[in-house]
Write a structure and sequence with these properties.
binds S-adenosylmethionine
């Protein structure tokens, strides 16, 4: 007889095998996890129970994602376990390998899944903030943009802003409807990022990428971007953004007037999301802007919504919808985009 926790996990594992999130390489691992869970594999059961004890509010999808990342991280570091990701294995073969790995490393996997986040970091997501922050600054005659990225991972987004080379490399794969706003430099005078403790390492981020050619390509883009922007300084600090007084102080102390939060808030419930947004907009220097970029349907379907909030206002202004959270595909302008764009330089062809 399954406990309610295990019953819910079993149902989610059955679903996630076919989910969009599992494409590009994760599905086979999810299938093996599902198989072992159905067999009530003792190390897997204990491991899940340890994680639930340590993170009582974690969703099933998030825990499955984290456990899979922890397995990949371990397999990449201990070469003898990497075969668990071989694409040619049958499900029983993969389940046997996974069972051995879980038995041998139960404690360290429980630690990794309890202490870390999913830090998948997208190399193309800066394309949209580049345009929106550039136009916002131009429209308000800002000469001093003091910028902070929440949930920044290794600070890639703050590093990439104003890199025309990186922008030109990725922009052609994101088609704007009706047309891409013109590229504008952002008058950045400070670049900050925060992420949860322990700050994600490049190794951990690599493990957040699935075992497939598609993800290898995305990870190469991340490495290339880091290389291109190696001389850019970003001040990255460990800070839990749910610690609202600290978050507010962090923003006020640095006189921040532009904030992004990308693929972070979806992990939290609606009330928590609104509290974080309120703490940011109340602390921004005016004129100031917050951009939120969050998956359209949790992580279960592709797509991302981008909203803007002006300093002091809790009202979301929908500015764009992107067809894929990796920012390859289409960006469709929403009615609120006109509030942000500088009218005289609004379109690339203008
Ligand atoms: C999926 S990654 C997104 C990384 C990057 N912003 C991007 O869009 O590519 C989410 C990041 O948010 C961070 N995060 C989640 N909850 C957080 C919190 N309460 N405080 C600070 N960072 C948090 C995670 O550690 C992780 O690095």
């Amino acid at each position: 007889m399954l406990t309610p926790h295990h019953a819910s996990m079993s149902a989610t594992l059955a679903q996630i095998v076919g989910h969009q999130q599992g494409h590009h390489g994760w599905s086979q691992l999810y299938a093996a996890l599902h198989h072992l869970h159905r067999l009530q594999h003792p190390p897997l059961r204990r491991l899940l129970e340890t994680c639930w004890q340590r993170r009582p509010h974690i969703s099933d999808v998030h825990l499955i994602t984290l456990l899979s990342i922890a397995v990949r991280d371990l397999a990449l570091r201990h070469g003898d376990h990497i075969s668990v990701f071989r694409p040619d294995l049958t499900m029983p073969q993969r389940s046997d390998l996974l069972a051995n790995l879980l038995t041998e490393h139960e404690d360290s996997l429980a630690d990794a899944a309890s202490d870390h986040s999913n830090s998948f970091t997208g190399a193309r997501r800066f394309l949209v903030p580049q345009l929106l922050l550039g136009h916002f600054a131009a429209r308000h005659n800002l000469t001093d943009v003091r910028y902070l990225d929440l949930g920044t991972s290794i600070g890639l987004m703050p590093r990439q802003l104003n890199s025309r080379t990186v922008f030109e490399q990725f922009a052609p794969d994101l088609t704007w409807r009706p047309g891409q706003p013109a590229y504008v430099d952002i008058p950045l005078s400070a670049r900050y990022g925060v992420d949860a403790h322990p700050l994600p390492t490049l190794d951990w981020i690599r493990s957040c990428y699935g075992p497939s050619t598609y993800y290898q390509d995305r990870f190469s883009e991340l490495l290339w971007s880091l290389d291109q922007t190696a001389d850019v300084h970003v001040d990255i600090n460990a800070l839990n953004i749910l610690d609202l007084p600290r978050l507010a102080r962090h923003i006020r102390d640095r006189q921040i007037n532009a904030v992004t939060v990308s693929m972070v808030l979806y992990q939290y419930d609606d009330i928590t999301r609104r509290r974080v947004i309120a703490a940011v907009v109340e602390s921004l220097t005016t004129p100031g802007i917050l951009l939120t970029m969050e998956p359209a349907h949790g992580l279960l379907q592709p797509g991302c919504h981008i909203d803007a909030y002006l300093a002091g206002s809790h009202k979301p202004i929908p500015v764009a919808a992107v067809s894929d959270a990796h920012f390859i595909g289409h960006a469709t302008a929403e009615p609120g985009l006109a509030h942000i764009l500088e009218p005289t330089i609004s379109r690339r062809s203008a």
